[in-house]
Amino acid sequence: MLLIWLGGVSTYAQAVVDTSLTMPAIEITASNIRNESMGFSGRSWDAEEMLKLNAQNVAELLSSESGSYLKSYGLGSIATSSVRGGNAGHTLLLWNGLPLNSPMLAQLDLSLLPIFAAESARFTPGSNTALWGSGAVGGIIDLQNTADFSKKSLYRIKVVSVVLVGFFSKTKFS
Q1: What is the pLDDT of residue 167?
Q2: Which is it for the CA torsion 60, 66, 68, 70, positive or negative?
Q3: Cys-Cys crosslink for 138: which of 45, 90, 92, 162, Cβ 3.0 to 4.6 Å?
């Protein structure tokens, strides 16, 4: 009789009480790079400053900055950057947070990027930019612009592709 009484007590003591609460999901979004942070030294240009410098491309914009060395091989040739002793593969170029460096070469020809493609630019030299990965050990060139997709565009892009295939493997593309 005592055994039955102790078995009943132990099962009563182990009863599970549900105290969990269900919370709604929370989504947090933020930029990886802080605007002003300890150790970050850099240079920013807005649209008016870039216009005053009369720079045609990103290479000409960076040539005025003392923290970078530009290797240019003449007009119409490649222009690469060297920041704080690193080579062109150690400088990351971002456009609205997206890396533009070639995944194969890890560098980019800075003379190919027109300056009118950005409303503002920021150059941050140094290894504190390694937050973006190994391609940013020398520094970051960050181009920013805002796009307003609610406005109707004055220009419409229309792409038409016609393929004509005939005999004897003669193919015409237009």
Answers
A1: 53
A2: positive
A3: 90
DSSP codes, 12-54: HHT-----------------SS-SS-TT---EEE-HHHHHHHT
Weakly modelled stretches of the chain, pLDDT under 50: 36, 154-155
Beta carbons of 107 and 80 less than 8 angstroms apart: yes
Domain-embedded: residue 25: no
> How many structural domains compose the chain?
1
Residue 131's CATH number: 2.170.130.10
Whole-prediction pTM value? 0.58
pLDDT at position 16: 74
- Confidence (pLDDT) at 114: 82
Residues near 115 by Cβ (< 8 Å), separated by ≥ 6? Answer: 50, 55, 56, 57, 58, 60, 61, 121
Q: Which domain holds residue 128?
A: 43-144
